[in-house]
Amino acid sequence: MKKIDTILFIILIQTSMLAQMNPTFIGAKSHYGFIIAHSPELKSISQTNPYGLQLEYSWLKTSDKAWKTCFCYGKSGFAFAYFNYANPDILGDSYNLIYFVEPYFTYKGPLKFSLRGSVGVTYLDRIFDQDTNPENLLFSTHLSFYLALSLNLNYHINNNYAINASLSYNHISNGGQKQPNKGMNFPTFSIGVDKIINNIELKRKPKSLKSYDTSIDYYLGSFVSLRSSDREAEASNHLLIGFTGGMLRPVSGINGLNAGIELWYDFSDQEIATQQGINDSAFSSSITAGHHFSIGSFYFLQQLGFYITRPKNIQSNWLYQRYSFWYSIGKSKRWTIGASLIAYGKVADHMDGRLIYLIN
């Protein structure tokens, strides 16, 4: 009898734990899209329609603590995506491992609208080769970076299944680690289905939870990258090292404004100046301003950078865009690690790794 009571007690405990579990999602979706030819030399290899398949696992935390990270409900999870670029001899296929966060804008009823940000790594099976694949100016390394932003409509058929439709803007680049590296931008439309485990009704949270710190945070940090000494062809890599600082001003629970400065020395610019006999310094400095999302431990920054000094004979642009992803670590959440992408108009230039300290 005691054994039966023990078994029943264990079953009761496990059932109670399952009832308190957060909803989880196991999903699959198909992609279909097109490649943006962002420079004239890419037109000949961009006249295809990429297609793919994505498998994903995600979860939705419903606690007050999780809700306060963005004053919203939202999913996060991992995905594997396969893309076929419909040009097997030149572009081949890619295999992508992805992490994503997806806050909901609406959550009442069966129809839910959300925004997803994704970051990951990709393996490309066809890359540039001067002899065997000279037309592929998009990719020059098998391992590269994957970034995406998606708008999603999710319709819950019942408590167990949901269907979704998404518009995604996808980007693949090696971050300037090796040339040529034009990078691929390819929007896709996708439809999919999710299996929902432990689905629950999402309820409105008390207004008392909608409070956030409006004080200004300051940041200091460093960044590092490797850059090719030839911007158009394969060449040796050189170190870029820099420092940054600025401030983050919240304007709502997840939105904020930022401003700062950046200083860096690019040894690839020094090599170019030496090779071409140019009297240019490899030192650059700039001021930045922009917008950012702060969701829990994640920061997504979009900034415009205005050069104060630059090697003008090497870098003709005086304005750039920077897109950054930070993740807070440690108990204090003051240290963040992350990466950023610098771009000039439609052309991605290079990526770097960042270590940032927040002061508040």
UniProtKB/TrEMBL annotation:
InterPro entries: Lipid-A_deacylase-rel (IPR018550), OMP/PagP_B-barrel (IPR011250)
A matching Pfam family: PagL
Protein name per its UniProtKB record: Lipid A 3-O-deacylase (PagL)
